[in-house]
Amino acid sequence: MCVPNNTKNSQDFASGKRPHKPAGKQTKSNLMNPVAPPVIRTVSQRVRHWLTVIAITTLVVLLSPVQAAPVVIDTASSGKGLNADVDLFIDQTDHMNVEQVRADAHFEPSHGVVGLGLIPHPVWLRITLNRNADTPARWWLEMQPFSVDELSLYRPEANGQYSVQTAGDAHPFRQRPFAYRQYLYPVDLPANQPVTLYFRVVTLNASILPLRIWQLEDWSQRALLEYLLLGACIGVLVGLGLYNLLLYLRLRDRLYLVYSLTMVSFTLFAADLNGLGSQLLWPDSGYRITGLNQALIALYAMLLTLFPLWLLQGGGLTRWFDRLLYLFVGLYGITIVTALLGWFGFTGVVIHYAAFPVFVLLIGGAVYRALKGFRPAWYYLLGHGPVIFSLNLLLLLGRGQAEASVFNRMLFVVAGAWEAIMFSQALAERINLFMHEKELAQQLALEEKTARLRDAEQHEKELEYKVKFRTLELAEEVENHKRTLDLLRKSEEQLTHMAYYDAMTGLPNRRMLMERFDYLLGLAKRQQSRFALALIDLDRLKAVNDTHGHDVGDELLIKVAHRLRDSVRETDIVGRLGGDEFVVLFSAPLDDDLLNVILERIRAAFDAPIHCNGLDADNKLSIGVAWCLPDDINFDDHLKKADVAMYQAKKSGGDSYRIAA
């Protein structure tokens, strides 16, 4: 942004000299016009000379950069954009301080341009403010760039020197003058005295520098609306990301995981771009990470390439389509590493030049699949289209070819939330498509069966007897199939019951107990609680079997099972390992006192004899208990602990319980 140097002839005109012409050579006008008398010629030369001087002087004045007139701050200035009154200067030396800039810098009027494009040098902004006496002395200058590394405000002090206040993504968030996602500087302006302020901006991204002046009350209302909009959009992104992560954990479909990661990466990218990352996510650590912004862009681009790649796979797309996109996915992965290592040259080339071929491939593949009837591709196009539009709008903002309004700057985040909704709909439509294919297969099977019936009817006309006979056979086969299916269903239910429940008592067996143990262990880990496992042994079952026979012993086991179920809580699980051994899983919440109360209730339940086949069987229990903590893993280990404690109870005479240490 500098004015071209004047040519030598221009310097000659400005100093009053005439341009040099070669000697001995006449112009066409000289040859065609008669020679004027000397006096007339002298007056004419002087007139032309002074007219030329006046014209050149006027041209130089018009083309020379001058400082913009002071911006008058009055009662209606709150929320006013200042970029139309800002002067710009690009420090191509990268090392000029404010004194050198004030003395030597060649500032240019910005003409209201907000986006300056990619500038690898510090950009200086100059603004002069003149406050009316009827307005408050304190005003607030708001700068809303996109992810700048360093932003410094220079303001004049009473001694004529300039103080500086520096913030940015390369500095901790606490250095900002106001706890805000962007940059808000308080300035105290004297009445009716022009004050010149300077901003110095250093960024690796496009320089988008919208500058406004506010009263704090007006700014607060506008900022609240922006925070609400950003919060709503990020809430949609995070909510859908978590929901699809849960779907991935349930369905184990990798596409749901990539969707969740894509939404997370976009959320981080948008938060960093709008300053929420520095304010909320990494206020005291993000500035230490080199190339964080570029790494987040590359991460989002990588996942945004991988999601449609897996969504659109198949349907006639060739292998080279997949391989090209996998190549770009790998390239973006390398770009993440190079950005974090500070190799911004390679990173910038990939981010700026890989986007277009990836866009062409993905949109082309999506259009192809959509035209082939793959409905999720339409949702992908509907979701990705606004994001592409908003990204191009950001590029136009960076080049100063679009207005830096709140809508244009926020559209990218809104488009991201819309993209999240549409991509989620694409996944839902994908499930609907699978269900439709299943229904279609069933319909084809039904149509095939109907066709066979039509063939049977046709054959019936030709060979009535044979057709009738075949129809009866078919009916019998169908009935046999139904009976077979019923038998198989009942057999499956019986096998399932036999696999998980004890055949005699109907209690859960060892397999079911192990599954319930794992469930309670997971619940204990999430709740940071504990539960207990009890091993129960009948003290006199062998004597009953030997004295009264195994029939009485079996009935005794069944009634013992009933008494155990009646003695514990509804949430506790009673099971049988085999023989005379039972297991009880005491679920959380559970403490020592409650455990002792339940164990005592179990023991007391067997004080009364058990009636079996007209006999009163007096049987007691020996109980061993082991606590199960969140860090424990193995069911058998706890069973061994409980077994040791149970034998301690049995050695002490039985009819008691022991809790393992």
The biggest sheet, with number of strands, parallel, antiparallel or mixed sense and barrel status, is: 7 strands, mixed
Category from helices, strands and their pairing: alpha+beta
Average the pLDDT over all residues and give the rounded result.
82
- Overall structural domain count: 5
Write up this protein:
The chain has 661 residues and is of the alpha+beta class. It folds into five domains: 56 residues; 144 residues, Immunoglobulin-like (Sandwich), CATH 2.60.40; 200 residues, no CATH class; 38 residues; 150 residues, Alpha-Beta Plaits. The chain is 56% helix and 15% strand. The chain is built from 19 helices and 20 strands. The strands form five sheets. Strands 1, 3, 4, 6, 8, 9 and 11 form a seven-stranded mixed beta sheet that branches. A hairpin with a 5-residue loop joins strand 8 and strand 9. The N terminus is likely disordered.
Describe what is shown at a glance.
By secondary structure, the chain is α+β, with helices and mostly antiparallel strands. It is 56% helix and 15% strand. The strands form five sheets. Strands 1, 3, 4, 6, 8, 9 and 11 form a seven-stranded mixed β-sheet that branches. A five-stranded mixed β-sheet has the order 15-16-14-19-20, sandwiched between helices. A four-stranded antiparallel β-sheet has the order 2-13-7-10.
Highlighted features:
661 residues; alpha+beta; Immunoglobulin-like; 5 domains; five-stranded mixed β-sheet; 56% helix; disordered N terminus
What is this structure's SSE topology?
Layout: H1 8-14, H2 28-32, H3 38-63, E1 71-73, E2 80-81, E3 87-90, H4 98-104, E4 108-109, E5 115-118, E6 123-131, E7 138-143, E8 150-156, E9 162-167, E10 183-188, E11 195-202, E12 206-208, E13 211-214, H5 216-251, H6 254-273, H7 276-281, H8 292-311, H9 319-341, H10 344-353, H11 355-371, H12 375-398, H13 406-462, H14 464-500, H15 510-527, E14 531-538, H16 541-548, H17 550-567, E15 573-578, E16 581-586, H18 592-605, E17 610-612, E18 615-617, E19 621-628, H19 635-651, E20 656-659
Parallel strand pairs: 1-6, 19-20
Antiparallel strand pairs: 2-13, 3-4, 3-6, 5-12, 6-11, 7-10, 7-13, 8-9, 8-11, 14-16, 14-19, 15-16, 17-18
